[in-house]
Amino acid sequence: MGATISLDYITHRFSRGAAPTLEKIENRIEPGEMVALIGRSGCGKSTLLHMLAGLLIPSEGCVRVNGHQVSRPSAKWNMMFQKASLYPWMSVRENAALGLLFSGMAKTEAFSRVDELLEMLGLHDKRDVNVQSLSGGQQQRVALARSLATDPEILLLDEPFSALDAFTRTALQEEVPAICRDLDITMVIVTHDIDEAIAMADRVMIMSQNPGRIVGELDVELPWPRRHMDAGFQSLRDQLMTQFKDTDDGLAGRKAITETTDDDAENAA
C-alpha cells in the first residue's frame, strides 16, 4: 500500500543567514500517486527529494509520511539516483538482494524474493552474472530491483535515467510506472525533462528557483502507456512549456523590480 506524503510549509537554508534554497513549500501526495517535480537546475528539487528520503532535515516545516514526521531514512521508502551504485564484485542477484541481506533475511529467502523482481524486469537469465558485464540500462534495472525488494511504500527517483540512451530511457519510463501501479507504490521523480514527467506521472509540480517554490501543477490524465507523439501528450507538453515561460517571465520581473529598488535606495543615500 502506498503512503501519503505531506509537505508542511518547508523552508530550507544551507547556512544561517543565507537566502532560502526552498521556501514555504506545502503540498500533499496521495497513496499510490505518481508525482514528477520539474524545474531548472538549481531550483532545489533534488534538495526537496532528499528531505522526502530523510537524508536532509528542513530548516523550517517538515515532511510527514502517513502523518509521522520524517527525521531519518527508513526501509519504508527507497531512493534511486543517477548512478546505479552497484557493488562491482557481486552478481546481479546479490546486488538486488543487498537490502534484504542487511536486514538479516536468510540468503535463500532473499534470493527467492529478488528472483521474482528480476523476472519482472527482464533480468532473470542474468541473475548470476557479474554486474560489470551489464549495460547501463540493465544496471539501473538491478538498482530498481534492489529498491523494490524491501517492499517500500514510496519510491523516490532522482533523475535515474538521465545518463541512459534514448531507447533504454523510454523503456524504463514505461516500465517503472507500470510496476508502481501494480505494487501500489507512491512514486516521486525529480527531472528537468518535461517529456519524462508527462510519461511517468499522474501529476506534475513545477518549481521556480531563488528560492525554490512550487508555482504550478498539472494533472496528467492520459491512458497508460503514454505515447510521446499522441495529441494529448503534445498538448500537455505545450501547457508545461507555457507555464515554464510564465515562471521565467515572473522571475525576471521580480528581479528587475528588486534591482530598481536597490538602485533607488543607493541614489537616495
Automatic annotation (TrEMBL):
Pfam family, one: ABC_tran
Keywords assigned: ATP-binding, Nucleotide-binding, Transport
InterPro entries registered for this protein in UniProt: AAA+_ATPase, ABC_transporter-like_ATP-bd, ABC_transporter-like_CS, ABC_transporter_ATP-bind, P-loop_NTPase
Domain ABC transporter: 5-234
Highest taxon listed in the record's lineage: Bacteria
GO molecular function: ATP binding; ATP hydrolysis activity
UniProt similarity note: Belongs to the ABC transporter superfamily.
Protein name according to UniProt: NitT/TauT family transport system ATP-binding protein
Organism per entry: Marinobacter segnicrescens
